[in-house]
Amino acid sequence: MCWLAYPVIAISFSGYNPYGWLALGAPSFMYYILMYVSGVPPLEEHMLLTHGETFRAYQRRTSAFFPLPPGYPR
C-alpha cells in the first residue's frame, strides 16, 4: 500500500503539472516485476516442487497477488 501512496501524493501536489502522473510508473513497474519476473513465478515453481498437489489446490482457491474473494480468476 505504501507504493500506492507516493503517486497519490505526487499527483495531488503537482496541481496542473502533468509530470506528477509519472509517479504511477514506479508501482506499475514493481507490480510487473513481482507478478511476471522475480516474485510469483519462481515462488510458485518452488512451492509446486516441494508441496505438489496440495499447493495446486491452494492456487485454485487463492488469488496470486491481491487478496480477492474466492472464485475470482488468478
Structure description:
This protein is mainly alpha-helical and 74 residues long. The chain has helices at residues 2-14, 25-36, 40-51, 53-61. The protein starts with a helix and ends in a 13-residue tail after the last helix. The model has no long low-confidence stretch (mean pLDDT 85).
What tags apply to this protein structure?
74 residues, mainly alpha
Could you write a compact summary of the structure shown?
By secondary structure, this protein is an all-alpha fold.
Stretches where pLDDT is under 50 for at least 5 consecutive residues are: none
Spatial gap, N to C terminus: 20 Å
Rounded average pLDDT: 85
Order of helices and strands: HHHH
As a percent range, the share of helical residues equals 55-70%
Q: Please tally the helical runs, counting DSSP H or I stretches of 4 or more residues.
A: 4
What overall geometry do the principal axes of the alpha carbons give? elongated
Gyration radius from CA atoms, angstroms: 17 Å
**Tally of DSSP β-strands:** 0
Instruction: Tell me the strand percentage band.
Output: under 5%
Task: Give the helix/strand class.
Answer: mainly alpha
Please render the helix and strand layout as text.
Layout: H1 2-14, H2 25-36, H3 40-51, H4 53-61
